[in-house]
Amino acid sequence: MSRLAVTPKFRHVFPTVAKVDQQFRDLRPADLIWDPSNQLAASATHFAVSLKTGGGGRLAVIPLSQVGKVPTDIPCFTGHTGPILDFEFHPFASDLLASVSDDTTVKIWKVPDEGLSSSVSEALVTLTGHSRKVGICHFHHVANHTLATASLDHTIKLWDIEHGEKSNITGHKDQISAFDFNLEGSQIVTTSKDKKMRVIDVRGNQILHEGESHGGAKTSRVVWAKRRNTIMSVGFSRSQDRQVLLWDPRKLDTLLCEVNVDNSAGVMMPFYDEDTSMLYIGGKGDSGMKLFELWEHDPPLVNLSEPSLGGPGKGLCYLPKVAVDTSICEVARFLRLEGDKVVPVSFQCPRKQAAQELQTDVFVDTFSTTPTMSAADFFNGKTSPPNTQPIEYGKGQSGPTSQGELKVDVSKPATPAVEKIDVQGQQAKVAALKKELEEAEKLLAEMEQRFKDSQ
Question: Which residues, including other chains, have CB under 8 Å from residue 360's CB and lie 6 or more apart?
Fold first, then answer.
């Protein structure tokens, strides 16, 4: 008796690239070489991009409805004194935007509904406490007003953005490349330049599990498939091939699955859709994307397609699920930074009945735009999965707005501890270098004299 082959549910998902008149053109994006950043961020109504500047950082926030040529004098958030390295919209208040910078600060900005009418230099909130540049920021998906940031001081700090720093995660020995939360938001997984992966209790500052990650030296990134409790990392092998690795978060010493992607050089940017179990991967410098589906069969991660999307990509971001158009069975919408333009890309699942009714097997209840708990509850130990909400039929929703004004009471942080310097050891090194320099100068003089004598 023959058996029907089991096939992935979303194998026919295809992209539609926006036409030129629906793109955002004539941008001057910052020449940022910072692998942990996607260089774009979006809410259901706006997107943010860092622009070139003579000093400090400029962050433009543009309504998604304002397609076409972007004015050269577009108003920006300008409060950072160093380059802006990462930024993200608040999941429960889409008019709030977090940014982190080379200047060691974390800032929260208020975005008007109609966009900025003039540049703004004074942030709604400025959080200080990191001692080196801050390169990654992610809002918590369960607790309101809770933000996590990673710095080159090798720490991850968790903030109640109304009241300041609440938790400081230590234990990393090298630069943190990426991190993501588990379903309840009580743990994070991190990847680092030391080629280690760690699962950490965010409130107890305890490393729960640790294991070897990608063998290559280039930047690796990680996402936590929350509903399936599976960790997926993207990076490079020792032979510099790009790969995707799957892990059980409770057993980081055992690899669940390894998928070789290709031998391109660009750092990969992963995006996981909790509702469809699809993994989207874009690479910096790539002309397309890689689509995978996480499922119950073996192997657990299956390659769906590798569509070409246009020119080389510099950045990529994923719009909230509430923004998709269910009447065309749009399962995901991305924005793609290509040179001096941002290009919308719609991924759709072909369904004949999508124009008449919601495809409920495709659009399951998604993570809610309403928080499950307050920041205070979370830092006091409360643990709960995120709320969910149904996806409405139609062309998408505008997303959440602030639930009342942000009540800022950020206490002055303690002065960061200064690393103790071994003065005698440093003096010995200086003396040794001076001796080496004197010997080199003597050798150079002898060589010059021999050269003169030979003429």
Answer: none
**For residue 56, what pLDDT band results from cuts at 50, 70 and 90?**
confident
Quickly state the pLDDT bin for 86 (edges 50, 70, 90): very high
Amino acid at the residue 48: A
pLDDT band at 426 (very low <50, low <70, confident <90, very high): low
Q: Check: CB of residue 339 under 8 Å from CB of residue 5.
A: no
Contacts with 288 (C-beta within 8 Å, 6 or more apart), sequence order: 306, 307, 308, 309
d(CA 373, CA 141): 10
- Over residues 82-108, the mean pLDDT reads 97
Distance (Å, whole) CA 193 – CA 217: 7
For 2, residues 6+ apart whose C-beta sits below 8 A from its C-beta are none
The tokens 């058996």 sit on which residue?
3
Distance in Å from the first CA to the final CA of the chain = 94
Q: How many Cα neighbours within 13 Å face the side chain of 258? A: 13
Look at the alpha carbons of 222, 225, 231, 233 in this order and tell me if their dihedral is positive or negative.
negative
Question: DSSP secondary structure string, 226-271?
Answer: TTTTEEEEEEE-TT--EEEEEEETTEEEEEEEEEEEE---SPEEEE
CA-closest candidate to residue 407, choices 107, 125, 140: 125
More confident site: 32 or 150: 150
Q: Could you count the other beta carbons within 10 Å of the beta carbon of residue 115? A: 16
Does the pLDDT at position 367 exceed 50? yes
Closest to 375 (Cα-Cα) out of 154, 139, 192: 139
CA distances from 120 to 1, 60, 61, 83, 377 (A): 70, 10, 11, 16, 33
Which pLDDT band, with edges at 50, 70 and 90, does 414 fall under?
A: very low
The edge-to-edge listing of strands for the beta sheet with 46-51 is 41-42, 46-51, 58-63
**DSSP count for the chain of H helices, then E strands:** 2, 31
Name 35's Cβ contacts closer than 8 Å, sequence gap at least 6. Answer: 177, 218, 219, 267, 284
Mean local confidence (pLDDT), 218-230 = 97
Please report the DSSP string for 283-341 in residue order: ETT-SBEEEEEE-SSSSSEEEEE--B-SS--SEEEE--GGGS-GGGTEEEEEEEEETTE
Q: What is the pTM of this model?
A: 0.88
Q: What percent of the chain has pLDDT over 90?
A: 83
Distances (CA, A) of 238 to 7, 195, 282: 32, 11, 21
The mean of the pLDDT values for the chain is 91
